[in-house]
Amino acid sequence: MRGREVNGSEPKKGVFAIERRRNPRFHLELPLDYSRITDKENYRGKVADANEGGILVYLPEKFEIGDLFKIKIFLSRQSELTSIEAIAKVVWADSAARKSAGEHRYGLHLQSFYKGDLQKFRELLKEVEKTRLPKS
User: Fold this and answer.
1) Which residues are CB-neighbours of 33 under 8 A, at least 6 positions away?
2) I need a surface site. Which of 67, 107, 109, 112 has the fewest CB within 10 A?
């Protein structure tokens, strides 16, 4: 079945995707420490991309959607090591882990930040935005 013509023009063909995110994602490669809310022991992971709404991370442990934990993102600014601390919630999990690296991929919503760290996070995103194009 052929598409209908609109105002005498041929119908458009092809596929397009609609981006549902409110904010563009930016590729980052930053180390991350995390621990469960009730646990004091930290584990190591990494941030792969970020936007105002959350971050994409690779972690060695398997988590469930809805799990909460503390995170600490490490970054270097003006030759000084600093960190951003927040409480994060797993909002999606990729069922296909990178088995060779023993990593699981998660989308985290940043629920709350430690004092002053929301501003640091926004500044980081602005810096990345100036130097890089958003991921599609």
Assistant:
1) 42, 43, 44, 45, 71, 72, 74
2) 112
- What's the rounded mean pLDDT across residues 90-104? 77
Strand partners, 54: 51, 109
* CB within 8 Å of 49: residues ≥ 6 apart: 25, 26, 27, 28, 55, 56, 135
CATH of the domain at 34: 2.40.10.220
Determine the Cα–Cα distance for residues 23 and 134; give it in Å rounded to an integer. Answer: 9
Among 60, 38, 57, smallest CA distance to 49 is for 57
**pTM score, whole prediction:** 0.76
Asked, for residue 19, whether it belongs to a domain, the answer is: no
Domain assignment present for 51:
yes
Percent of the chain beyond pLDDT 70? Answer: 75
Owning domain of residue 47: 26-131
For 60-93, how does the pLDDT look when each residue is reduced to its tens digit (9 = 90+)? Answer: 988 999 999 999 999 987 778 999 999 999 999 9
Enumerate residues 6+ apart whose C-beta is below 8 A from 92.
65, 106, 107
In contact, 110 and 91? CB cutoff 8 Å: no
Whether residue 99 lies inside any domain: the answer is yes
